[in-house]
Amino acid sequence: MSVITVFNGLFSEAGVVVKRVLDSTGYRLVTDQEIVADAARLSGMAEEKIARAFQAKTSVFNSFSHEKERAIAWLRLAMANKLMDQDDLLFSGFASQLPASEIDHILKVCLISGMKERLAAAEAAEGYAEKHALKLLHKDDEDRAAWTEYLKGSKDPWARELYDLIVPVGKTGVDKAADLIVEQLSNPAVKVTDASRARVADFALAAKVETVLAAEGHSILVSAKSGTVTLTINKHVLLLERLERELTEIVSGLEGVQKVETGVGKGYHQTDIYRKVDFEVPSKVLLVDDEREFAETLSERLMMRDMGSAVVYDGESALNLVREDEPEVMVLDLKMPGIDGIEVLRRVKAEHPNIEVVILTGHGSEKDREVCMELGAFAYLHKPVDIELLSQTLKAANEKIRAGK
């Protein structure tokens, strides 16, 4: 049987339409939550970190951690496993964009309504005032646009070329919208064929390869066809041939891989540099220090050692960033205007105990050191600090984090 994928705009009554399609077809609904849970189980990553891949906003640490790319790789594998196991499925949500466009027996549906109709639905269903509803709509549309651009190269999440069927629910009505979807299941263009099943197998192989590379710290565009795997490098790398050899060695021995081809993509000649994740060092270090020049110089020196870092200059900014984008390790000054370092440490360890905090201060006393260590600081260092000592301390903190996971 054909598979249905449904991508929709917020407050477009998609839930009602999907329910009626399920009732008519007997299909099983697969939600984003189920795909995320499967991806988390396969990868060992936390569900909230995987679900964050759906958001337009990317972590400030992502250029070093590749966390979003790794999450999407595991989401693809979770989706591929579903497609390999069963046909009569309806995928609804962001995950509906994951399958390769070439899989013919997937009926790709978009449910959308005009802005006035969506605002009216938000008020009727949730009681939202227009201003609040608009804020939610713009945020959701932004997330969906970023998602389709990343996966499909389209900044327009409602672009006609992405779908077999676009239904304006507000004008069509939910009953007719559901009928149109069910009706299209009989279209020969979305029937299961040997060729379409082969494309599912290709998609599954590419997804498996992508996760294996991600586990080795690589973020590479992967495609597959009849056992031939193509690896596309989309960022500039100084030693291209060595990287290609490394990638080929990793992939060649995988089951189902008969041949490996490598090449560069359209992004290769841009200024962005290819970075492999080094799991032996922390890739999400937050530097908190009101001495801007010192903090920025320290950040650059850590980056030269493959440690991804972000910099904030006061305690309040540090606490805000921790809430939005949890780092692995924090390097924290004590004497800062506003919220001081000891209070930041106290709050961070109370609310995010897995974050390791290294105190780095030029003004602390022995009593300050005792208080910080009692509050759970990983280490207490003095300025000026030897960069090798700091690097070793951060590596040790990273080892503790990895052992805890």
UniProtKB/TrEMBL annotation:
- State what protein this is by name: Response regulatory domain-containing protein
Residues that bear 4-aspartylphosphate: 333
The chain positions of domain Response regulatory read 284-398
Q: Which organism is it from?
A: Pseudodesulfovibrio portus
Looking at the Swiss-Prot or TrEMBL record, what is one Pfam family this protein matches? Cytidylate_kin2
Task: Say yes or no: keyword Phosphoprotein present.
Answer: yes
Q: Which UniProt keywords apply?
A: Phosphoprotein, Two-component regulatory system
* Record-linked PROSITE patterns: RESPONSE_REGULATORY
The portions of this protein that span the membrane are none
